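#structure-requests
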Amino acid sequence: MTERIEALAQKVIARLGDRVRRLPSLPDELAFEVEPESLLDVCRTLRDAPELRFEMLMDIAGIDFLDYGRDEWQTQSATRSGFSRGSRRLVGPRPPTMERRFGVAYQLLSITHNERLRLRVLCRDNEEPVVDSVVDIWASANWFEREAFDLFGILFRGHPDLRRILTDYGFVGHPFRKDFPMIGNVEVRYDPEKKRVVYEPVSIVPRVVVPKVIRRDERYSPALRDAAGTGKQ
Protein backbone atom coordinates (compact mmCIF):
# COMPACT_ATOMS: atom_id res chain seq x y z
CA MET A 1 0.00 0.00 0.00
CA THR A 2 1.49 3.34 -1.06
CA GLU A 3 1.67 6.26 1.36
CA ARG A 4 -0.54 8.31 -0.94
CA ILE A 5 -3.29 5.67 -1.00
CA GLU A 6 -3.08 5.20 2.76
CA ALA A 7 -3.34 8.95 3.33
CA LEU A 8 -6.47 9.10 1.17
CA ALA A 9 -7.96 6.13 3.00
CA GLN A 10 -7.48 7.87 6.35
CA LYS A 11 -9.21 11.00 5.00
CA VAL A 12 -12.21 8.95 3.87
CA ILE A 13 -12.43 7.11 7.20
CA ALA A 14 -12.05 10.33 9.20
CA ARG A 15 -14.87 11.97 7.27
CA LEU A 16 -17.28 9.00 6.93
CA GLY A 17 -16.47 6.87 9.97
CA ASP A 18 -18.43 3.64 10.26
CA ARG A 19 -20.67 4.52 7.32
CA VAL A 20 -18.10 2.85 5.05
CA ARG A 21 -16.02 -0.31 5.31
CA ARG A 22 -12.67 -0.68 3.63
CA LEU A 23 -12.35 -3.50 1.09
CA PRO A 24 -9.27 -5.47 0.06
CA SER A 25 -7.74 -4.02 -3.12
CA LEU A 26 -4.55 -3.82 -5.13
CA PRO A 27 -1.68 -1.76 -3.67
CA ASP A 28 -2.39 1.22 -5.93
CA GLU A 29 -6.19 1.10 -5.53
CA LEU A 30 -8.63 2.09 -2.81
CA ALA A 31 -12.09 0.59 -2.33
CA PHE A 32 -14.86 1.00 0.23
CA GLU A 33 -18.26 -0.59 0.78
CA VAL A 34 -21.38 1.22 1.91
CA GLU A 35 -24.78 -0.02 3.02
CA PRO A 36 -27.73 0.84 0.70
CA GLU A 37 -29.42 3.18 3.20
CA SER A 38 -26.25 5.28 3.48
CA LEU A 39 -25.38 5.38 -0.22
CA LEU A 40 -26.69 8.85 -1.10
CA ASP A 41 -25.31 10.49 2.03
CA VAL A 42 -21.88 8.93 1.51
CA CYS A 43 -21.79 9.88 -2.18
CA ARG A 44 -22.64 13.51 -1.44
CA THR A 45 -19.91 13.64 1.18
CA LEU A 46 -17.37 12.14 -1.20
CA ARG A 47 -18.30 14.78 -3.76
CA ASP A 48 -18.51 17.83 -1.51
CA ALA A 49 -15.96 17.34 1.30
CA PRO A 50 -13.03 19.71 0.59
CA GLU A 51 -10.37 17.10 1.35
CA LEU A 52 -12.05 14.52 -0.94
CA ARG A 53 -13.82 16.32 -3.80
CA PHE A 54 -14.71 13.33 -5.99
CA GLU A 55 -16.49 15.53 -8.52
CA MET A 56 -16.63 13.01 -11.36
CA LEU A 57 -18.32 9.63 -11.65
CA MET A 58 -16.30 7.76 -14.25
CA ASP A 59 -18.31 4.55 -14.45
CA ILE A 60 -20.91 2.34 -12.80
CA ALA A 61 -20.72 -1.45 -13.05
CA GLY A 62 -23.25 -4.04 -12.01
CA ILE A 63 -21.97 -7.14 -10.17
CA ASP A 64 -23.46 -10.63 -9.97
CA PHE A 65 -21.92 -12.78 -7.22
CA LEU A 66 -23.82 -15.94 -8.18
CA ASP A 67 -21.55 -18.96 -7.50
CA TYR A 68 -18.90 -16.65 -6.05
CA GLY A 69 -16.10 -18.74 -4.57
CA ARG A 70 -16.86 -21.78 -6.71
CA ASP A 71 -15.02 -22.97 -9.80
CA GLU A 72 -15.80 -25.35 -12.63
CA TRP A 73 -12.45 -25.11 -14.43
CA GLN A 74 -9.14 -26.80 -13.76
CA THR A 75 -6.56 -24.16 -14.63
CA GLN A 76 -3.65 -25.04 -12.37
CA SER A 77 -2.64 -28.05 -14.44
CA ALA A 78 -3.15 -28.80 -18.11
CA THR A 79 -2.48 -31.46 -20.72
CA ARG A 80 0.40 -31.13 -23.17
CA SER A 81 -1.98 -29.44 -25.58
CA GLY A 82 -1.86 -26.35 -23.37
CA PHE A 83 -5.61 -26.43 -22.73
CA SER A 84 -7.26 -26.78 -19.36
CA ARG A 85 -10.35 -28.93 -19.00
CA GLY A 86 -13.80 -28.19 -17.71
CA SER A 87 -14.53 -30.13 -14.54
CA ARG A 88 -17.60 -30.91 -12.52
CA ARG A 89 -19.08 -27.81 -10.93
CA LEU A 90 -18.34 -27.58 -7.25
CA VAL A 91 -21.42 -27.39 -5.06
CA GLY A 92 -21.94 -26.26 -1.53
CA PRO A 93 -22.93 -23.19 0.47
CA ARG A 94 -21.87 -19.80 -0.75
CA PRO A 95 -19.33 -17.88 1.31
CA PRO A 96 -21.19 -16.05 4.11
CA THR A 97 -19.78 -12.69 2.98
CA MET A 98 -21.53 -13.05 -0.39
CA GLU A 99 -25.09 -13.85 0.69
CA ARG A 100 -26.21 -10.82 -1.31
CA ARG A 101 -26.07 -11.67 -4.98
CA PHE A 102 -26.13 -8.30 -6.73
CA GLY A 103 -24.05 -5.20 -6.22
CA VAL A 104 -23.05 -1.94 -7.86
CA ALA A 105 -19.53 -0.50 -8.11
CA TYR A 106 -18.91 3.23 -8.60
CA GLN A 107 -15.59 4.46 -10.02
CA LEU A 108 -14.93 7.97 -8.73
CA LEU A 109 -12.36 10.57 -9.75
CA SER A 110 -11.24 13.66 -7.87
CA ILE A 111 -10.06 16.19 -10.43
CA THR A 112 -9.07 18.58 -7.65
CA HIS A 113 -6.75 16.11 -5.89
CA ASN A 114 -6.05 13.71 -8.77
CA GLU A 115 -7.27 10.72 -6.77
CA ARG A 116 -9.45 7.70 -7.59
CA LEU A 117 -11.73 5.62 -5.41
CA ARG A 118 -14.07 2.68 -5.89
CA LEU A 119 -17.30 2.50 -3.89
CA ARG A 120 -19.38 -0.68 -3.71
CA VAL A 121 -22.92 -1.26 -2.49
CA LEU A 122 -24.67 -4.64 -2.24
CA CYS A 123 -28.41 -4.93 -2.89
CA ARG A 124 -30.35 -6.41 0.02
CA ASP A 125 -32.97 -8.27 -2.04
CA ASN A 126 -31.67 -10.96 -4.42
CA GLU A 127 -35.05 -11.33 -6.14
CA GLU A 128 -35.56 -7.62 -6.78
CA PRO A 129 -32.21 -5.84 -6.41
CA VAL A 130 -32.70 -2.13 -5.76
CA VAL A 131 -30.42 0.75 -4.80
CA ASP A 132 -30.92 4.51 -4.86
CA SER A 133 -30.07 6.41 -8.03
CA VAL A 134 -27.14 8.84 -7.80
CA VAL A 135 -28.21 10.85 -10.86
CA ASP A 136 -28.90 13.92 -8.71
CA ILE A 137 -25.32 13.73 -7.38
CA TRP A 138 -23.51 12.90 -10.62
CA ALA A 139 -25.45 13.52 -13.85
CA SER A 140 -23.21 11.04 -15.69
CA ALA A 141 -24.88 8.22 -13.72
CA ASN A 142 -27.96 8.43 -15.96
CA TRP A 143 -26.84 6.16 -18.79
CA PHE A 144 -24.54 4.09 -16.54
CA GLU A 145 -27.50 3.13 -14.35
CA ARG A 146 -29.62 2.32 -17.39
CA GLU A 147 -26.85 0.01 -18.59
CA ALA A 148 -26.65 -1.80 -15.23
CA PHE A 149 -30.43 -2.15 -15.24
CA ASP A 150 -30.46 -3.51 -18.79
CA LEU A 151 -27.64 -6.03 -18.36
CA PHE A 152 -28.05 -7.06 -14.70
CA GLY A 153 -31.66 -6.21 -13.84
CA ILE A 154 -30.61 -3.91 -10.99
CA LEU A 155 -33.24 -1.24 -10.27
CA PHE A 156 -32.26 2.32 -9.37
CA ARG A 157 -34.82 4.03 -7.17
CA GLY A 158 -35.47 7.61 -8.28
CA HIS A 159 -33.92 7.33 -11.75
CA PRO A 160 -35.73 9.75 -14.11
CA ASP A 161 -35.91 7.36 -17.10
CA LEU A 162 -34.96 3.79 -16.20
CA ARG A 163 -35.32 1.79 -19.42
CA ARG A 164 -33.15 -0.47 -21.55
CA ILE A 165 -30.25 1.15 -23.36
CA LEU A 166 -28.32 -1.68 -25.08
CA THR A 167 -30.84 -4.45 -25.80
CA ASP A 168 -34.11 -4.21 -27.69
CA TYR A 169 -37.11 -2.85 -25.82
CA GLY A 170 -38.84 -6.21 -26.22
CA PHE A 171 -35.86 -8.16 -24.90
CA VAL A 172 -36.62 -10.59 -22.08
CA GLY A 173 -34.04 -11.16 -19.34
CA HIS A 174 -30.71 -9.59 -18.44
CA PRO A 175 -27.68 -10.86 -20.42
CA PHE A 176 -24.97 -10.31 -17.81
CA ARG A 177 -26.65 -12.32 -15.08
CA LYS A 178 -24.65 -15.48 -14.53
CA ASP A 179 -27.74 -17.67 -14.85
CA PHE A 180 -28.63 -16.22 -18.26
CA PRO A 181 -27.90 -18.77 -21.05
CA MET A 182 -24.83 -17.85 -23.10
CA ILE A 183 -26.68 -18.72 -26.33
CA GLY A 184 -29.60 -16.51 -25.34
CA ASN A 185 -33.29 -17.33 -25.36
CA VAL A 186 -34.25 -16.29 -28.90
CA GLU A 187 -32.67 -15.48 -32.26
CA VAL A 188 -33.42 -12.27 -34.09
CA ARG A 189 -33.38 -11.85 -37.86
CA TYR A 190 -34.94 -9.69 -40.53
CA ASP A 191 -37.65 -11.44 -42.53
CA PRO A 192 -37.75 -10.00 -46.10
CA GLU A 193 -41.22 -11.41 -46.72
CA LYS A 194 -42.75 -9.97 -43.56
CA LYS A 195 -40.52 -6.90 -43.91
CA ARG A 196 -39.82 -6.78 -40.20
CA VAL A 197 -37.61 -8.25 -37.50
CA VAL A 198 -38.79 -11.63 -36.21
CA TYR A 199 -37.91 -13.62 -33.11
CA GLU A 200 -37.30 -17.37 -33.34
CA PRO A 201 -36.16 -20.17 -30.99
CA VAL A 202 -32.39 -20.49 -30.62
CA SER A 203 -30.90 -22.94 -33.14
CA ILE A 204 -27.39 -23.01 -31.60
CA VAL A 205 -26.49 -26.26 -29.85
CA PRO A 206 -25.18 -25.53 -26.32
CA ARG A 207 -21.68 -26.82 -25.58
CA VAL A 208 -18.98 -26.42 -22.96
CA VAL A 209 -16.28 -24.05 -24.13
CA VAL A 210 -12.77 -24.98 -23.06
CA PRO A 211 -10.74 -21.82 -22.36
CA LYS A 212 -7.13 -21.70 -23.47
CA VAL A 213 -4.59 -21.10 -20.73
CA ILE A 214 -1.56 -19.21 -22.02
CA ARG A 215 1.64 -20.76 -20.79
CA ARG A 216 5.34 -20.03 -21.26
CA ASP A 217 6.74 -21.23 -24.58
CA GLU A 218 10.52 -21.24 -24.94
CA ARG A 219 10.22 -20.90 -28.74
CA TYR A 220 9.32 -17.26 -28.22
CA SER A 221 12.06 -16.32 -25.76
CA PRO A 222 14.00 -13.16 -26.80
CA ALA A 223 17.30 -15.06 -27.19
CA LEU A 224 15.90 -17.58 -29.67
CA ARG A 225 13.89 -14.94 -31.53
CA ASP A 226 16.94 -12.70 -31.99
CA ALA A 227 19.05 -15.66 -33.10
CA ALA A 228 16.46 -16.59 -35.71
CA GLY A 229 16.43 -12.99 -37.04
CA THR A 230 20.19 -13.00 -37.63
CA GLY A 231 20.24 -16.46 -39.17
CA LYS A 232 22.25 -17.91 -36.27
CA GLN A 233 21.18 -21.16 -34.62
